[in-house]
Each structure stands twice: as structure tokens, then as C-alpha cells.
Amino acid sequence: HAMSVCTQSVLLAKRMGICDTAELPQLATGGLLHDIGKQQTDSRVLNKPNKLSAKERVALQQHPKAGFESLCRREDLNWGQLMMVYQHHERLGGQGYPVGVAREDIHSWARVCSIVDVFHGITTARPYHDANPFGVALDYLGRQAGRVFDADMVK
Questions:
Q1: Torsion of CA 77, 155, 2, 86, to 10 degrees
Q2: For residue 119, is pLDDT > 90?
Q3: pTM
Q4: Which end of the chain is least crowded, N or C, by CB within 10 Å?
Q5: CA-CA distance, 64 to 77, in Å (whole number)?
Q6: Tens-place pLDDT, residues 7-17
Q7: How would DSSP label each residue in 28-85?
Q8: C-beta contacts of 124-132 below 8 A and 24+ residues apart
Q9: Which helix (H) or strand (E) holds 90?
Q10: Residue 18: its pLDDT value, please?
Q11: pLDDT value of residue 2
């Protein structure tokens, strides 16, 4: 998953016109690291094949914060990379987590990561759902563009 998010984040960034030879590898690294906080989440929660309980959902929703906290003192990571880890579950309307920031308060690299993360999540088999065709993911992202995800990035 991390490698797909890394690769697809770079492809989306290039498609949006980000071609800086220093910026793209940094964005790639952020994609690789985006879910590092899941190392601190119980594997029974991560691999549960059915609906999470409220307590399990709260535990899972701590992974962006845990990841940020584990990386924030590193001098070899920049703010954009840290925000990919911390904000990849934030949503434009403020309904995301871990803190519910909205719109321009979500770093652009985190907005890229959130789209790619959801796309890969929908199109890949998980313990709780089968893989869906790309069209299903694209339709979902299209319906959520402008409300949940950055419309220009989805386009």
C-alpha cells in the first residue's frame, strides 16, 4: 500500500504540474511514510474483517497523530512530508481526522495523499472488502470532489 501511495502521489503531482526534481522525491518519501503510525495500532484492528467498534475506530484514527509524533523531530523530513503523515485523513469539509481541519488548512501534499490513499484503498482487496475496479474508485472520487477531496486534484 505504501509503495502504491508513493508512486501514485508522484504521478498525480506530475499531472498537476509539479515537476521540481527536488520536490518529487520528497513527496514520494511522504507517500511511503503516510501510514507509519499504523505500526502502533493493534494488528487485530488493522486486519479485522468486519465493522470496527467505536473503540477500535478511535484507536485506528490515532495513526496519523502517532506517525507525526514519531517523525516530527527528524531533521531529514520537511513540513510537507510530515503533513502527508498527519493530514492524509483530513477532508475539505472538516469532517476528517485527527483534528478536522478544512480546505486551505490541509497541506497540498496531504490532499494529494488523501486522494491516492482512498483510490488505492478502494481498488485493493482488504480484510473487510474485495478489490473494486478503477471505475468504481474514480466514480466515488468524482462524487466527492469539491466537498471531501480537492476537485482540481481529482480532475
A1: 50
A2: yes
A3: 0.94
A4: C
A5: 16
A6: 999 999 999 99
A7: HHHHHHTTGGGGGS-HHHHT-SSPPPHHHHHHHTTHHHHHHHHHTT-TT--HHHHHHH
A8: 124/1, 124/4, 127/47, 127/48, 127/49, 128/48, 128/49, 128/50, 128/51
A9: none
A10: 87
A11: 96
